[in-house]
Design goal:
The complex is a heterodimer of chains A (306) and B (320).
Chain A lengths: L1 H28 L4 H6 L5 H11 L5 H13 L13 H36 L4 H15 L2 H15 L11 H31 L2 H8 L4 H39 L4 H10 L3 H29 L7
Helix pairs in contact in A: 1-12, 5-6, 5-8, 5-10, 5-12, 6-8, 7-8, 7-10, 8-10, 9-10, 10-11, 10-12, 11-12
Chain B lengths: L2 E12 L2 E13 L4 E5 L6 H9 L7 E10 L2 E2 L5 H7 L4 E4 L13 H12 L4 H14 L5 H5 L8 H13 L5 E5 L7 H18 L2 E6 L2 H7 L2 E6 L2 E7 H6 L4 H8 L38 H5 L5 E4 L2 E3 L8
Parallel strand pairs in B: 3-8, 3-9, 6-7, 7-8
Antiparallel strand pairs in B: 1-2, 1-4, 4-5, 9-10, 10-12, 11-12
Amino acid sequence: MIGFILRRLLLLCPVLLGVITLVFFLIHLIPGDPVELMLGDSAFSADKDELREQLGLNKPVYEQYGRYLTGLFKGDLGISIHSREPVLENIVERLPATLELMAGAMFVAIGLAIPLGLISAVKRGSWIDQLAMFFSLLGVSIPNFWLGPMLILLFAIQLDWLPVNERGSFLHLILPAITLGTALASILSRITRSSVIETLGTDYIRTALSKGISEFQIVTRHAFRNALIPVVTVIGLQVGVLLSGAIITEYIFDWPGLGLLLIEGIQTRDYPLVQGCVIFIATSYVFVNLLTDLSYALVDPRVRLQ
Amino acid sequence: MSLHLENLDLYLSSGKLPIQVLDKISFSLEDGQTLGIVGESGCGKSMTALAIMQLITSPPLLKMEGKVLWNNVNLLDLTKREMRKIRSKEIAMIFQEPMTALNPVMRVGDQIREVLREHNPGNRKSENKKIIDLLDKVGIPSPEQRAQNYPHQLSGGMRQRIMIAMALACGPRLLIADEPSTALDVTIQAQILEQLRELCREFKMGLLFISHDLDVVGYLADRILVMYAGEIVEWASTKELFASPAHPYTRALQRSRPKKNQKNKLTPIAGNVPPLDQLPQGCRFYDRCELREDQCAMQRPPVFKINEHHQVRCFLFAET
């Protein structure tokens, strides 16, 4: 188990190096000059050159890349061009908001999807099943950049039930969490449904029936845990999607998380900030995948981590 | 405690049309006796067993007619809850595939515990003791450790023993064994069969044993039913069935099994069991029968009595 984790962590290194390199050069391909954006068109060219030198932007790109990499080894993600604060500090400051949003979305998704998928599977073909699957199709088809504004229009502006904009009480979390969690809930409920249906047709369910135990116990004790295995995989894979969805959701709701930070960085051509955010997101994605693999062993005793 | 089936018809819905899978199945099994059912795949052996236990899930059951009398109570009239009290407590069942019949994510001890808890609840300690005793009884070495294992950690033979232990947990009066040894290799098969025989004797438990292997059934059963295409074609005591098989199908089955010092080739039965949705108008075995006559194509043969212990569904015995 420990060997497995160490090997996976070691494999992380080339993946991350690839991500860092890709992000670094892609960002430098984006047209626009951060110095121009900061000082404006009317600034003297001497001032611009001075700022460029200060930020190291006058050096050739490969040298900037080398400096960035050596900095990373020391845990230094660079200094934000815009705020002049260390990028890592900025990220750490914004991280709790994003984690809160993702946890909220995950709660909405799992809380809705698993009971719904389970009921749909057990009552296959009934009106409950058809209704649930209709809503899940709807949920997966609606993009969150449309759902978010619509929820704001209805619940915040028309009905005035819930607050929007910025982070605050639990009530502030509700609309962003629904916006971000709906698509995931839809996917998960379909996976749960099909997985439970498949499990209910297996021989060991027939054995369980032959024991004389109730259908409720059969579903909860025998079918559910076996059906959970593919669901866990999808949850793990979808965390990455959730992260990218969080960028849009945070922008819509002015939620002060990593996504908003990233968008601010892109708008101001804040190279170190954007690089830092993307690298951070990529790393967490890889870590979540590792956690997903580890969780298989918890759900399924046949999985041995090697 | 006895089981009587009276004219059991079973229809499944497959596609649009209903398919009759069992046709007027009648037999009785007295307490402590062993009845064997033999026939090729698709003859309705397993369906008969599942119908008694009411465990038919797919394809969906359309309807069952007739009677399944267990101690003079028709099981078909029971509610779901009442039927649950029969399963495992009075009639238990073991299945063909020990590899897939156990829940892969549950410890085998806990799978046995589930039966105990449903029908004979006790405290955890007494349950543990009972589980160990059961595992010991079915010949599992170091039962304490084995109870903690997951199914994938056990061999096929071990798993089938676990299934048997699970079936015996509440001391049922009847055990239905649906090809319990088919998926196992020959030496393990012999051990399992011997074990089943011993246990039935010890618990004075009835056994309904299903197999496609005539020799295996002959080894265990007091009486044998031969099924073909959803109906019973011959019914006799084991001794009589082996000494003087009557139905051409039974004779063909006998010829098709390997004998000691066999020099010449085995004689298979030509053709296949007809699909249940395309049954012929006359005798269902007509196409494959070596002794067929014109009458057989037109008319379905009724059951003829050869003697007290022997009945057959074939016109050859019409005079007797």
